[in-house]
Amino acid sequence: MRPAAAVDSLQAALAAAEAGERLNQKQALALLEEADLLTLGRLAQASRFRHNPDPLVTYAVDRNINFTNVCTSGCRFCAFFRPPGSKEGYVLDKKELGKKIQETLDLGGSHILIQGGLHPEVGIEAICEMFAFIKENYAIGIHGLSPPEVVHMAALDSISLDQALDRLIAAGLDSIPGGGAEILVDRVREKIAPGKCSAAEWLQVMALAHAKDLMTTATMMFGHIETSAERIEHLARLRDLQDQSLARGKGHFTAFIPWSFQPDNTALPDIEKATANDYLRMLAVSRLFLDNFDHLQASWVTQGAKIAQVSLTFGADDLGSTMIEENVVAAAGVHFKLPAEELVRLAREMGFAARQRNTFYQPVGAMHT
Ligand code: SF4
After folding, report:
1. With a threshold of 0.90, does the pTM exceed it?
2. Strands (E), the chain
3. DSSP state of 70
4. Distance 186 CA to ligand 1 centre (A)
5. Are 291 and 285 spatial neighbours (Cβ–Cβ below 8 Å)?
6. What strand order describes the sheet that includes 363-368?
7. What confidence tier does 335 reach under pLDDT thresholds 50, 70, 90?
8. Ligand 1 atom with minimal separation from the 117 CA
9. Which CATH number fits domain 25-368: 3.40.630.30, 3.40.5.10, 1.40.20.10, 3.20.20.70?
10. Cα–ligand 1 centroid distance for 6 (angstroms)
11. How far does CA 10 lie from the centroid of its chain?
């Protein structure tokens, strides 16, 4: 039998969530660990409709372009990177890059998500040149890099994070994806990604970007060595940063995107994949706790179409992107592919209209009812 105090704290957390109150970390932890799954889904969906009253699910058409797979970080959860000197290492040239961008535009894409590894010789100048090439030749948004890449490039060129961001923005960077967050707790980062930036540095890059009016997303990769409390700590750090951004007039995190660790081909093969139950609980608690985030994305790339569809009843209002190309999760042996028509079908089957959006969540094209 559970102690009376635990029952009380769960009941208090459920009551707070039902009333739409801001949850504290203790309440979020009680919900994540103890609440009934379907109750969590109902509460998260009520929160979803408070943030986004229309029965509409959005999606983007874009492509993940990895300009290099060479990386010095050696994260233990990553099946994508190759160490410097590897025969399988590559750096895309402008011709290959241009071809991928043109294909994205031909499919109605509004932006590209462009990221690489922490290449020891590709610094800020090379990246600015690449961004300038893209902007001079293609009408497409650059949703690019991630905080660890910005930290790496600033260190390579011995410049401040502030200077690095200014140069990237001047060259054409439009927004920053929230990659490389994993779990924003250094105990976890030191074990699974010791070569990557700290939690404080990740948050610092995002804070600086927000202060420069750059929109970003936030992510979480869970289901490896972290505790439930560390997952909640991660959410709390994001919520605090969004509060700071809102205090200046606008929340610069557009969306939160949680996904579960995919262990195949990584240095952590013995970790069991998160179940659908774990994924949906995490999604629902994220929706309830992140009361200052407008949007939550379902991760069909890691969960597949069926769980992505269920996610639309657990707080998610967005299906992410078509990902014409995706290399990082694919390297871990997960190969779900969904064209735009399929994303529309998934949303409509669940009773929602669907609409393409750009990276700023502005509508693109017609509504699919
Ligand atoms: S996750 Fe990113 S930083 Fe880490 S090894 Fe892979 S490519 Fe490098």
Report:
1. yes
2. 56-60, 62-66, 111-115, 141-144, 175-176, 215-222, 253-260, 295-296, 318-321, 353-357, 363-368
3. B
4. 16
5. no
6. 318-321, 56-60, 353-357, 363-368
7. low
8. 7
9. 3.20.20.70
10. 39
11. 29
